[in-house]
């Protein structure tokens, strides 16, 4: 076992991206340490002989216990760290409008999507450096670049994660969004400004992201293959659109994708009807 490359993957509950990544790394010959807050949520991985560890990535003491355990098992080295941890579906993406957000839920989302990966890197960095040519993989999202409506908390958390990864790449240089269960049906609060677009919201914000999503096993193969390359490829498509197209064009495309063009027509019609009645 000592000659195998090692990888730690967080958020490996059965059926999710983390589980698929753990399986693919296992297939590629890695020694995999799969983690999740409830240990019994990784039964599929245990059945494959993958080492599973209980880990709450928002608890620093838990992170340190896992770090020390892995350090003992690997002689103080780790080749790949994959920050993928997730909580339950609705609290992960928190698909609500800015005006409807509960800030306690936003803070909890940031704790998981931003602060937890920072803590994981801090605690595992010496193991990663000791391996010689390590990789840190942060599972980001196109939402961190595009202004996906009803997703401000998630968008900004992923944008922060992207910025964190870019900074980390520079700082550590001297040391050498798929089909998932993260989006589930949700409803717009009765008091929301957007309640009248409930049907459009369900169709284009909640359902659309999963209708043509990439299966987790295919996504995992791509991520693992890129992780194993000396020079992983950059994904330029969305970056190009966001960088070079006028903001008005990006906003127009987004509005049509997520039904806000229809909602705008609805609002105008409602105003016209109100004006006629008065």
From TrEMBL:
Signal peptide: none annotated. It holds the Pfam family adh_short. Keywords: NADP, Oxidoreductase. One of its GO terms (cellular component) is lipid droplet. Coiled coil: none annotated. One of its GO terms (biological process) is phosphatidic acid biosynthetic process. InterPro entries: NAD(P)-bd_dom_sf (IPR036291), Sc_DH/Rdtase_CS (IPR020904), SDR_fam (IPR002347). One of its GO terms (molecular function) is triacylglycerol lipase activity. PANTHER family: NADPH-DEPENDENT 1-ACYLDIHYDROXYACETONE PHOSPHATE REDUCTASE. Belongs to the short-chain dehydrogenases/reductases (SDR) family. This is NAD-P-binding protein. It comes from Mycena albidolilacea.
